[in-house]
Amino acid sequence: MAVSLWVRADDGCRLWAASLGTGDPLVLCHGGPGLWDYFDDVAELLRATIRVVRWDQRGCGRSQLRGPYSVARSIADLDAVRDQLAGSRTALLGHSWGAHLALRYAMEHPDRVSHLIYVSGTGIDPGRDWHPHYERNLRLRLGDHLDRWEELRARARTPSEDREQAVLQWSADFADHHTALDHAQRMATPWLGVNEDCNRAVNADVKKEIAGDLAGRCRQLDLPVLIIDGAEDIRPRWAVDSLYEALPDAERVIFPGAGHVPWVERRDDFHRAVTTFLVRRR
């Protein structure tokens, strides 16, 4: 059973965290922004050989509802989690927005990161906007649920309708439409709500960062990086090409038959890729 813990950030904000398993630490950074930790399956998958550290980002899930919300603030909070629960140096795994957070943390503190696992991120290329492709693919993947999703999206919602809208949208993140809604329902249980203020502020901050020279900073990153993608992610995978090309020590795995959450649809392959990378690159 995971041990629930509390981390105190340098400004006093209380962050929920949990630790499970034995072995070298791996800190997980969930996506969003504005969501909460949904890595139950990953923690169970890796616990036999890895000590998995999970946490809810500031203002999200079980953590204290408190700003400010920015990439810099998220990096500082992650540093507090690393310091208090993982030790002087740790491996990082980030998913979606969390992949960007883990990458940026490694840029700021390369001496505190042993390995970086970048899962289903959206790259660093300011010249190729992936959002229109995502919006088109989302609508195609929603299929018969599109009308209901658009209706909910267009108006004020009750908390239960917030969850319904999120479940419909998240269902598009899975490749197999027969099981997609069930997977999305699991991700939304328990429903801890979306911090929309956090989402807007951090996304705006990421957009500003992407406009800068992140590729140049990636070329200076001297640590092993594993990029994991699902081939059927509705976010186009070419968005990650420039990141892969910029990193001096990177390998990339693309799982066919998987969408944005590859550890759900390619469980064994995901486990093998992560553990092999962490052991082989010690």
Automatic annotation (TrEMBL):
GO terms for molecular function: hydrolase activity. Keywords: Hydrolase. InterPro entries: AB_hydrolase_1, AB_hydrolase_fold, AB_hydrolase_sf, Peptidase_S33. The keyword Disulfide bond does not apply. It holds the Pfam family Abhydrolase_1. Residues 25-262 form the AB hydrolase-1 domain. Belongs to the peptidase S33 family. This is Proline iminopeptidase-family hydrolase. It comes from Luedemannella helvata.
